[in-house]
Description:
- The chain is an alpha+beta fold.
- The chain contains seven helices and 14 strands.
- The strands form three sheets. Strands 3, 5, 7, 8, 11, 12 and 14 form a seven-stranded mixed sheet that branches. A five-stranded mixed sheet has the order 6-10-4-2-13, with no helix packed on it. Strands 1-9 form a two-stranded antiparallel sheet.
- β7 and β8 (203-209) form a beta hairpin.
- α5 runs antiparallel to α7 (324-335).
- The chain is elongated and about 90 Å long.
Amino acid sequence: xxxxxxxxxxxxxxxxxxxxxxxxxxxxxxxxxxxxxxxxxxxxxxxxxxxxxxxxxxxxxxxxxxxxxxxxxxxxxxxxxxxxxxxxxxxxxxxxxxxxxxxxxxxxxxxxxxxxxxxxxxxxxxxxxxxxxxxxxxxxxxxxxxxxxxxxxxxxxxxxxxxxxxxxxxxxxxxxxxxxxxxxxxxxxxxxxxxxxxxxxxxxxxxxxxxxxxxxxxxxxxxxxxxxxxxxxxxxxxxxxxxxxxxxxxxxxxxxxxxxxxxxxxxxxxxxxxxxxxxxxxxxxxxxxxxxxxxxxxxxxxxxxxxxxxxxxxxxxxxxxxxxxxxxxxxxxxxxxxxxxxxxxxxxxxxxxxxxxxxxxxxxxx
Length: 366
């Protein structure tokens, strides 16, 4: 299910002129206070929220406490190249902002910009943005058989009353147990302004900007961001974790969300996992490699006379139960043209459906 995509009313042109005038007119030179270049929001972090705030140069940005901090490229002018410079650094392997960065310090460049009221106390450690439980990142759990390639979805839920301009995150896995094979942008990202998804050793990262100029935003709903495909390398019985982390990339991409105009906050996260199960083919209950009349006959016989080692194979209708309805379902598929049993049927694989049945042993798959 997708959430709402909200269009904001145009900004008043009467707000734009004063803002541009403040930016373009030389600010009287004065003694520089310590700051971190790129930290336009003055919260001690140089992150996605800062470049979103910098883009407000053409709308209504609210108060600017330190023009020098917003001058990311240190050319003495606060303008559109500054958020672009920061975007390239954070997500495009671009060069870091000039000094003072990453620590506080005075501006080494003589220019007309000033820093009169930088909000972060440079004597304290850089804070982690506050937790906001109205934003929830989650990873879907899956089951896969050794050698099988499976999809895992990453979603963002926004609770009622909240809005979002941008987000970023990192997802880590054990490379000895899972091999990342493909990253596919999610259905919710089809009409946003900018996205980047990058693979790294031991995981991958994603960053999304809904709208650079805040002409539209995401409000309450569930947003499918990325489908990651993994080949299962682990052994049957393994449970392989997939976790949100802040350590992937250079610089590291942090798991953050940016409400409209920022600053960024830390979302709630729900980790996922891949459970390694036995490979089987649904409805091939006699495990001879084909699905034919012998399977429903053997299925009916086993209901009364045997104890199968792979109940999932007997669950032809995939309802999480093994009973006479499965043999009837399979007969309908074989002789009356009704729907085929759900996957895995065309090739060996694990059960993609969570239920109480299992598959301890299956001889029909390698």
